[in-house]
Design a protein that fits this description.
six-stranded antiparallel β-barrel; six-stranded antiparallel beta barrel; 203 residues; 12 strands; alpha+beta
Amino acid sequence: MFTGIVEELGEVVTIDDLGDSARFRLRGPVVTQDAKHGDSIAVNGVCLTVVDTADGEFTADVMAETLKRSSLGALVPGSRVNLERPMALGGRLGGHLVQGHVDGTGTIVERVPGEHWEIVRIALPDGLARYVVEKGSITVDGVSLTVVEAADDSFTVSLIPTTLALTTLGLKQAGDPVNLEVDVLAKYVERLLGARGGEEKAA
């Protein structure tokens, strides 16, 4: 479980194409300080399992399904990535509960700079709009953000200078893909209400 508070702006070192999967080596001196084989690290919001670590770098195997459902397949050596270690039990929950399970990829539509922040509009893939609400939480490339405006096919977020400086969201341009993870609590509520509706009809 993660919080969506990015710890480090890392970098892709190498990508080995394994046919039905890929092995990524990534540089992240902060997140590898206490990482070991089998641990999880979120890369642009995607939960990956650490294979090994050495000299501030770690490797992770990325299955074809993950490459297909996220924007990790578009990364190349030298790409910057958002990195976060799992939340420690008993620690502060700075963002919101994030699983690192990407629900789909969105596309940055436009960026509107302000005096001290920047408004970014992101197009939603089919099926996710119902989970996105004004003032609700959403994870964009692993960054926990508050929705400013929710439309039928897109949403906007406001990025403060810290977010722009310390995450990849300061580097993204219109047309770039981003990984999206909606609030898991909304999905559970929908599922439970659907099951309850079915029970009431059966009765």
